[in-house]
Amino acid sequence: MTTSSAKVPVNFIRGWPAPSLLPASKLKAASATVLSDPKLFVPGLEYGPDPGYQPLREELACFLGDFFGVAPDPRRICITGGASQNVACLLQSFTDPAYTQAVWVVAPCYHLICPILEDSGFRNRLRSIPEDEEGMRVDLLEEGLKEFENAKPRDPVYKELSPDRKAYRHIIYVVPTCSNPSGKTMTPARRRAIVEVARSYDCLVICDDVYDFLTWPVLSPPPSSTAPAASLVPSPPPLPRLVDLDRALGPSPHDAASGGHFGHVVSNGSFSKILGPGMRTGWAEGSPALAHGLSATGSSRSGGAPSQLAAAIACEVLRCGALEDHLRDLVRPALQRRHGLLVDAARRELAPLGVEFVSRNWEADGVGIYGGYFLWLRLGEGLPGASEVAKRCKEHENLIIAAGQMFAVKGDEQAVDLDRNVRLCFSYLDEALMVEGVERLAHVLRTWNEPLGPDSQRDQGLNMATFK
Ligand SMILES: Cc1ncc(COP(=O)(O)O)c(C=O)c1O
User: Fold this and answer.
1) Residue 1 C-alpha to ligand 1 middle, in angstroms?
2) Is 463 among the domain residues?
3) For a 10 Å CB count at each end of the chain, is N or C smaller?
4) Separation of CA 82 and ligand 1 centre (Å)
5) Which of 16, 117, 273 to mutate to test the pocket of ligand 1 (most atoms within 8 A of CB)?
6) Both 394 and 252 in a single domain?
7) Where does a domain end: 286, 320, 354?
């Protein structure tokens, strides 16, 4: 066997779109249109209004309305600097660390969300709620909320938020569709249950809805790269967003008490996965009061919504239909194919060793649907733990995989055991390398108890327990 350093690195951690999926020519054309016309480039290059570039709010309202089958309303949309930046703004405008009791985070969670939540005063107040097959365990969520309500006296709100904004009692953080890292999608029943709990306990549910447009039917065998793209990916109907379920229920008793219909869910959208992360532009959708309150965040009041020029360019990409073309003709077919290749390799190489995974998330018209960027593996009981496997993969195979513990909720790590899980990202790697990576992982598992090669002496003391 070759030594680890002689092998081409295979990095399954990077959750980026592959360079071949970046719409450079479409963005170039949109930029040329914007920068050639003073009616577009003057507002694009000056400070913008607080809720963001108005034409983009209007385009997005129609795009989202068509996609999710809801009535378009630009007043419900606020332009943001992307999903991550916007979580910080939401916490600035809709929480007060003295009054807001805790942030309830789905576990496993998108690992980079924790520092954003901690930076807003919630260090040691993140609470881990595990997922089951349907999504976040709403029974445990409600149990936790109840205990909190009984145990803690109410502190006052110290921030000056009213009348445009309010402090919620709790924040809930979820990725309802094609979650990062588990790939899971919440069922419609679980979505409704979470919305109901949020409305009862005065919670704001922050939904990172960043993978909603990236779903496809699961085909076996995976389509070839030369197959006509559009015929492969009839877009499956989306599941209802939590924000739309909350909207349909109208104001809650807490809305009445706070003097405005702020609602209990915000959909945090982003152009990162559908155009490119470098756009650093996204949108938040919630009630008109919530969108207005978000636009009143101090950093938006000073100079207007972030990413104004990127927003003008994104608007043009939407307006001329280039975004829909890009998703239909390139992104969905490529992800569908990459996912298929990874699942095939995992079925062939890993399943016989006792590794489990879910390859379809829900059904539409009898066809399995999957989506997003990630495959979440479970190492069967007889196999070694994920952290040790990841360590050995790196040292002996030049293979980087994300061990489950990386996705634990910070400060509440013990609540959910993730050391049997591994996340593999299929959006970024070269296709052939991705398959080779699975073969290398299988090799590590298969030879776990064999003596290590000469370059591996430092590892001899590692877990040598037998499996199976
Ligand atoms: C669940 C989730 N939320 C947010 C982000 C980051 O979004 P943005 O680039 O818009 O900040 C990611 C990126 O991987 C993600 O997976």
Assistant:
1) 38
2) no
3) C
4) 8
5) 273
6) no
7) 320
Does 180 sit in the ligand 1 pocket, CB within 6 Å? yes
Query: Are both 146 and 203 inside the same structural domain?
Result: yes
DSSP 399-456: EE-EEGGGGSPTT-GGGS--TTEEEEE-SSS-HHHHHHHHHHHHHHHHTTTSPP-GGG
Per-residue pLDDT of the chain (468 residues; tens, 9 = 90+): 455 668 999 999 999 999 999 999 999 999 999 999 999 999 999 999 999 999 999 999 999 999 999 999 999 999 999 999 999 999 999 999 999 999 999 999 999 999 999 999 999 999 999 999 999 999 999 999 999 887 766 788 999 999 999 999 999 999 999 999 999 999 999 999 999 999 999 999 999 999 999 999 998 777 776 665 555 566 788 999 999 999 999 999 999 888 789 999 999 999 999 999 999 999 999 999 999 999 999 999 999 999 999 999 999 999 999 999 999 999 999 999 999 999 999 999 999 999 999 999 998 888 899 999 999 999 999 999 999 999 999 999 999 999 999 999 999 999 999 999 999 999 999 999 999 999 999 999 999 998 776 554 434 333 333 332
Q: What spacing in Å lies between the alpha carbon of 232 and ligand 1's midpoint?
A: 27
The Cα 436–Cα 184 span in angstroms is: 25
Contacts of 310 (CB under 8 A, 6+ apart): 271, 279, 280, 281
| Structural domain boundaries enclosing 397 | 4-20+325-450
5: CA distance to ligand 1 center in Å?
Answer: 31
Q: Are 229 and 132 in contact (CB under 8 A)?
A: no
Nearest ligand 1 atom, CA 373: 16
Identify whether residues 275 and 337 lie together within a single domain. no
Task: For a ligand 1 pocket test, name from 80, 272, 274, 409 the mutation site with the most ligand atoms within 8 angstroms of its C-beta.
Answer: 272
446 lies in a domain? yes
C-alpha of residue 313 to centroid of ligand 1, in Å: 20
Q: How many domains does the chain have?
A: 2
Residues 277 and 333 in one domain: no
